[in-house]
Specification:
22% strand, alpha+beta, 8 strands, single chain, Arc Repressor Mutant, subunit A, elongated
Length: 166
């Protein structure tokens, strides 16, 4: 279960857990909990069953969650393929509005040429973009705003002219 996000707050801080109870609490295998103990989860291993304090379990899981986060600086977006924060290729960002005051910044990764995204509000756009230039591509807000007509538009004209000739 590599993609499972464990909520550290499920552990009660005033309770001690056995390895099996932690595994049941988070829906994981007992060996995963034993691996956590080897990786630094404090446990009372002097007697059987091994006991884990709820405060230690919560702190361990919060540290694990925080260590996996990558913070992007100004002008940086997160590349999912590279798994790192990267500056936009050639310093070019596109702003795609989602709501009236917020949207997504989009750019190409300079290493793998994959699309990178970052959420940003209009108020803090100058701080987020850093030294990059931002383009604001505007698309059609609604389907009816486009210049393209319906596929059926010529058939009504054709029927009228055929009817008028008869």
């Amino acid at each position: 279960m590599a993609g499972k996000r464990l909520n550290p707050r499920r552990a009660k801080i005033n309770r001690c857990y056995s390895v099996e109870e932690v595994a049941r609490l988070y829906g994981i295998h007992r060996q995963t909990v034993r691996n956590w103990i080897k990786a630094g989860l404090p446990a009372m291993t002097g007697a059987r069953p091994h006991l884990i304090a709820g405060t230690d379990l919560r702190a361990f899981l919060e540290r694990r969650r925080a260590s996996g986060k990558v913070h992007c600086g100004p002008g940086e977006l997160y590349c999912v393929r590279c798994k790192a924060a990267r500056e936009a290729a050639e310093g070019m960002l596109d702003y795609i509005p989602i709501a009236s005051l917020s949207g997504n910044l989009r750019a190409l990764c300079p290493v793998c040429s994959c699309l990178m995204h970052r959420r940003a509000g209009l108020r803090n756009l100058d701080a987020v973009r850093g030294s990059c230039t931002v383009a604001y591509p505007h698309g059609h807000e609604r389907i009816t705003d486009g210049r393209l007509h319906s596929l059926d538009c010529h058939s009504t004209t054709h029927r009228e002219t055929a009817h008028d000739k008869a």
